[in-house]
Amino acid sequence: MPRSGEPLTAEVAGAATVPPAxxxxxxxxxxxxxxxxxxxxxxxxxxxxxxxxxxNLVPADPVTAVLGDAAAADPEVVAQFRRELGxxxxxxxxxxxxxxxxxxxxxxxxxxxxxxxLDDLREAVPATAELxxxxxxxxxxxxxxxxxxxALRHRRFADDxxxxxxxxxxxxxxxxxxxxxxxxxxxxxxxxxxxxxxxTQLVPPPQVTGFMTVDSLLAGQTATFVNALAHLxxxxxxxxxxxxxLLARFSRSAVLDVLNQEYVTAARAKGLPGRVVTFRYVLxxxxxxxxxxxxxxxxSLLSGAVLTETVFVWHGLGQYAYQAxxxxxxxxxxxxxxxxxxxxxxxxxVVDLLYAVIDPRVRRQ
Amino acid sequence: MAGELVFDxxxxxxxxxxxxxxxxxxxxxxxxxxxxxxxxxxxxxxxKSTLAKLACGLVPAAGGRATFDGTPITPYGLxxxxxxxxxxxxxxxxxxxxxxxxxxxxxxxxxxxxxxxxTAPSVDDLLRSVGLDPALRTxxxxxxxxxxxxxxxxxxxxxxxxxxxxxDEPIASLDASLQAQVATLMRDVALASDTSLLFISHDLSVVxxxxxxxxxxxxxxxxxxxxTEQVWSAPQEAYTQRLLAAIPLxxxxxxxxxxxxx
Amino acid sequence: xxxxxxxxxxxxxxxEALRSPLTVVGVVxxxxxxxxxxxxxxxxPADPLAQSPDRLAPLSAAHWFGTDSLGRDVLSRVIAGAxxxxxxxxxxxxxxxxxxxxxxxxxxxxxxxxxxxVMRLADLVLAFPxxxxxxxxxxxxxPSLTNAVIAMLVVTWPQYAxxxxxxxxxxxxREFVVAGRLLGIGWFTSLRRDxxxxxAGPVFALTTLDFGNAIxxxxxxxxxxxxxxxxxxxxxxxxxxxxxxxxxWWVAAFPGLAICSIVLAFxxxxxxxxxxLDPRMQKAVGSRAL
Amino acid sequence: xxxxxGLRISxxxxxxxxxxxxxxxxxxxxxxxxxxxxxxxxxxxxxxxxTVLGLPPAGSVLGGSxxxxxxxxxxxxxxxxxxxxxxxLAMVFQDPTASLHPMISIGGQLTDHVRHHLHLGRAQARARxxxxxxxxxxxxxAQALRKYPHEFSGxxxxxxxxxxxxxCRPSVLVADEPTTALDVTVQAGVMRLLRDLCDELGLTVLxxxxxxxxxxxxxxxxxxxxHGRVVEHGxxxxxxxxxxxxxxxxxxxxxxxxxxxxxxGRP
Lengths: 365, 262, 290, 267
Prior knowledge:
Chain A has 365 residues and is mainly α. Chain A contains 15 helices and no strands.
């Protein structure tokens, strides 16, 4: 069968330009990075817009929430408060004010803790980051590993087992899984500590990175390190089950796609040993889609954290957002939304950059 | 008589974000006279398929103009295609994508007949005219081979009662043994109903078989044009000579065409 | 001499993916739950809201699934919960699928500015992890079921927009769609007759997969107290009740299992549908010529 | 050229999911000659080539024998067959843009199997790669090694793919529609390259194509296949000019330069 059906736009792909040879575009890599950076900045600006709009949608008047009912009764105090926060200005002006405050990292004050949201976040973010990174590390190794393994054993028993396990992984509700793991792991078997990041009687290590495990290592307190690690295990297990399920499913289908490619057959026709074909040809081809899903899984990880932290009383971003949301502490909720949104955009921007590193077609147009 | 397609100094450019714009066609001029079969040949990327898309109003002309029986051809975008241009129809390259997989063959032929129902032949006649058993009318496209699907696509084009039929590499995806057969079918079916034919292909020996005149394109430009036998026996342009010299002949003599590297 | 091989392939048999055991299990469980939704009141042994003195009573003949912290029958509440979560999630999936795929189709068809705006909007929404954005929206609008559904709608439409847009872009250049336009039909007829029938399959497969996520998201929000408000028998709320009294494992166990089973069932079905309807599979089958 | 180092396929059968796709293929491909395998799509010609390489579709049941250097390839274990692939048995595919990995440099794809089979060091493998690129007439070999597939034209890529195939000096080269995806001017160059390699290296070339014109220019003997069986085989001249089997006659008559030109224009 001659040339397989070329797409209708073969002309564009193969278009011969009128001589002389086409001018090579400016450095292609620079152009790719600047476009991706532009889009990311646009998205970050979008996030600030979303959080600003949300704060103004509130039916409940923020004034009473912050000042409390007694003070809210006195018009003088209310007027003074509104002026202070610029609430009397027009919306666009308020937005500019909001942006200015953001640039000075002023995320407003939390109604619950009466402290600047920024300080709350300084404590909450490292706790969630430690949990998230611990889970991501384990999940990427395990998840991608069994996903690739299943694809290579396609249509055989191992493949079906992995499919079912990963499906269960993503089907179980995280908050329920957290409870089950908490109940069995801590309450029933008592193998691992149930809640919190450290036993109460242990003194937390001096804060360097905010990561209990890392800081205790830096401080040389091995006992604290072991205890902190133990506290990570149960909530970590809950989030790992979901993330492994997600990564296994995606890696499996990414590898299956690559296995159908002709360059894999050609690699086999070169008589290369199985492991070379797998690692050098198959995985290299599947690396990009897998990288994308790892970036995306960070998002679902944060979602999961919100639910898991409430069960394990883990004072991280998730629990802070939960308490803020249920008590209508909007400044805090928007602060969390902003931090999480920006982090997520940055991670996906880094994934875009890795695309250029891995795929020569992107770096050399 | 109707069915005249004129390309007058036509230029088409593709702008791709961030990359230098590409001139796919550069001041191309030739015409397809009523009732004539013109072969448009050239290597991939020479602009021949772009001309086909331009003739169907799928791409805009950056310069010059294409007219069909006097009506200028401009992209119609989301609007309905102008009525006068409906007598210009096209057969595409990939048989596996030229029919709607979700609809029976008869229904798709009826759609085409709906343009000029009075004069359009019946579905059975259409299928017979392309060498297919009318009983197959109730089947779905996935139940046909590549060659059969291409025949159905030809029948659909002819069902509209066209004055001009354009084949954009209609045989490129078929087996060599079917290519000449389907090409000849297109010629016979077109001439039988006074339809002119613009046959676009990179396969010069098939084009030689069915074309009255031949237009040779290279890198977006028309480099030579003339009656088929004259272009074959006495090609003027060096590029045409190279193209003709490169065609292997099925003469059993084992001579590998000798082509000086570009 | 006719070289034209009139070998016609057998009638399109039920794709293998649909007959695998996993799918059968999925269909059976899903059908079971739909039955529970329909027959709900008949199956409930007791009034899901009726409180009784014997609180946190373990499994017994009277209460097959025991009672919760207010002495209510867990089995009845699980059944009643099904009548809330399942129809609501179906509604949500239907809403976000139609809104999302409509926007995606329009973006795919019109291209240009419209395409940019819709896609950047989708990117923006996807820039937030689902639950966190849902929380932000629900908190902004105040906790209630309708607000939770609105929050979920905001969060879930982008995936449909993206999938539909890429399918429409793919279909728009397919030769049979162009051929249709050459016959002079308007863009709407072309959409209805040529594009949609070939795009609907994979989008439908996505809705089945997404149904599970909807259940998880809805119960998640309720668990956080941002969705249904007590005393409604909603699975998420029941699990959060179980958290306060985790020693009585049955309070949270059965609603959790309910969620897990229905989500798993629809994921099995969705997986099979996607394999069967995936355009890549069809294309592979279609153009396998050698 | 002794018959020993050619290829002898006898009674080759292949069954997949209950369907007999190859139904007793017999052919001899002597060394130093181009043996053409012709036939329409679905005739099993590509499958025959893949089976020689030991890469039939998963789950296919094989019968008959493929003799190469006194051993029947079908009796080899996967590992033994894999050792032969790339070193003694090589293959070139139809679309070079699909058979070369987009993210691995040409140098990488030229040397990885060379280093594995010939146990060469990095420098020696690179030298061999440069030598091969010159042999297949790719311009500026040193620079080409560092480039990636998307930076070459179709014709150059196919030359590189041929270079990769012959890098370990194999005895047998299976070429599956090697010129079909190329433009006619580029096609001629690749055909000449295959001919020269066959003559100079004494390669056994199994040329698989449905294009009888390419077959007529390049193949020494032609084997015509239909529905998994050989219907005719013989020297190029006889098969093209005096086909015995009706199916072969149909194939030849279906070619453009054999059909009577339609009489003039309008009736």
